[in-house]
Structure formats: structure tokens, C-alpha cells
Amino acid sequence: MFQNVIVKQPCHRIAEGITSSPELGKPDYEKALEQHCAYVKALEKTGAKVCVLEANDAFPDSCFVEDTAVLTSKCAIVTNPGADSRKDETAAIVPVLQHFFPKEVIEFIHAPGTLEGGDVMMVRNHFYVGKSSRTNAEGIRQFLDILKKYGLSGSEVPLEHVLHLKTGVNYIENRNILVSGEFKNNSQFESYQKIEIPEEEAYAANSIWMNGTVIVPQGYPQTEQLIRDAGYPVITVDASEFRKIDGGLSCLSLRFTSLL
Ligand code: CIR
């Protein structure tokens, strides 16, 4: 159960966010704001208390708050994003985390290590961490050291094509895992019950488990059905504006239970 969620509103400069898919067009600020509101409502429906942070126009990608921290049952780890334009997004998350975690369990990834939360997938007390264009070997080394200190474990998953680990693979509890593309045959996920996402719906591999319900992006009917067939209630939300700048549903929130 995740009792708490942190989100950050999209900012006026969202159209300047980093993208690998310029052909999708630029996100529309008003639409993004509407979609963000619906996303918050969906999270609230699952019983979580949502803390909505104000937008920050200094950082076009700052609504993707997941990348700034990894929140566990024992500690909070503030990241050091690999994208230069995103590095300083972390300064704003520290005082927020202090409302939910004792100061002495707030840890940091330091340069030259880089790590983004989108590369970290939690399965109970184990954390898979993608080695990507954003998360480097030194970031992973520091991250695994921190996990060890708290009795948690982690393992590295090298990425080939996708931006972040959770762009292509997401754990939805009960040993069920959504896998797309390069992760379908990855031996590290062999022991899970795999739900294979069809290539044309790969974006929907980034669906999120929230307190028994799975929140799925709108417009991916095959994925929605596969998740329903696995026994989950589903809420769909439109994420089209975030998709234009490589953002999915997981990136838009930090989901956790407060230690305070
Ligand atoms: C970026 O490239 O950093 C943003 N445009 C998208 C971040 C998506 N975050 C995530 O998958 N956790």
C-alpha cells in the first residue's frame, strides 16, 4: 500500500522538455494541466494522500518528479539526474522529503554518479536499476551501497533502446510484471508472470500499480484488457501531452508511505 504520493504540476515551459519523439508535436500547457489534474484524481481514488507541488518554470521537465528521488520503506534517496537541464531539479525535492522522512535517512547520489528515478523499479525490498544514458555505473554503485546500508538489495539491468528502465518494464505486484520490447526475454525477469505488451502499445508498459488498482494510459485497449484479465481493476487517464516529451505515468509521481 502506498499511503502518499508527491506530484509536481507541469510548468508553462513544458513544450521545451527533452524529447526523442519530436514528430509527436509539442505538449500543450493547458491540456497538460488538465491531464495532470485527472491523474491526481485517479491517484486519490486509490486511497493515497497526494501532495501537489507548485510548478517551477525554471525546469521544463520538472513535472516528472519521479526522476528526482527513490523512496523506499527505509530511506529516501535523492538522485543526481543525468540530463544537464534536470540536475538542479533535486534541490526543490529535499525540503519536501523532510516532511515524510527523518533527516538522517535522506541519502544522496553524488557526482560523478548519475541516477534518475525512472531507472529504478521496486519489487518489495529489491530494486532493479537500469544502466542508461541517464544513470551511470558510479550512480549505480552508490545506489547499491545505500540500499545495502538499509538491508535492501539491488541489481543492474543494462538498457539498449529505451530512455529509462520503467519506460519498458513495470512491476504491478503479485509477481506480475508488464514487459515490452527489449525486456520480454530478459533473464532477470524470468521468475515473474510476464504480461507482454504488444509493440504498437509499448508506451502503455509504463502503467502503474496503486493500491490494488492499475492506472493505464488512455488509448491502449489491448494493454488495458491484458491487465483486467490478470484480475486488476483499471483506471485510465489521458497522458498524451506527457508522451510527447517521453514522459509516462510513473514519471509523474513519487509513490511511497511516509516514515513520519
Ligand atoms: C526527460 O527526458 O527527462 C523527460 N522529458 C522525460 C522524463 C521521463 N521520466 C521517466 O521516465 N521517469
What is the assigned CATH homologous superfamily of the domain at 4-159 and 238-256?
Answer: L-arginine/glycine Amidinotransferase, Chain A
Mind telling me which CATH architecture of the domain at 4-159 and 238-256 this is? 5-stranded Propeller
Let me know the average pLDDT: 98
How many beta-strand runs?
A: 15
Widest sheet, order of strands: 2-1-15
Beta-strand percentage range:
15-25%
3D shape: globular
Kindly state the percentage of residues in helix: 10-25%
Q: Major beta sheet, specifics?
A: 3 strands, mixed
Total count of helical runs of at least 4 residues: 6
**CATH level-3 fold name of the domain at 4-159 and 238-256:** L-arginine/glycine Amidinotransferase, Chain A
Instruction: Report the radius of gyration as a whole number of Å.
Output: 17 Å
Question: Uncertain regions: pLDDT < 50 for 5+ in a row?
Answer: none
CATH class of the domain at 4-159 and 238-256: Alpha Beta
Topology pattern, helix = H, strand = E: EHEEEHEEEHEHEEEEEHEHE
Which distinct ligands sit in these coordinates?
citrulline
Task: State the distance separating the first and last CA atoms.
Answer: 16 Å
Brief characterization of the structure:
The chain has 260 residues and is of the alpha/beta class.
Task: Give a description of the structure.
Strands 2-1-15 form a three-stranded mixed beta sheet, with helices on one face. Strands 3-4-5 form a three-stranded mixed beta sheet, with helices on one face. The chain has a three-stranded mixed beta sheet with strand order 6-7-8, covered by helices on one side. The model has no long low-confidence stretch (mean pLDDT 98). It has 260 residues and is of the alpha/beta class. Helices cover 21% and strands 23% of the residues. The chain has a domain of 175 residues: L-arginine/glycine Amidinotransferase, Chain A, CATH 3.75.10. The chain is built from six helices and 15 strands. The site of citrulline (CIR) has 18 residues, from loops.
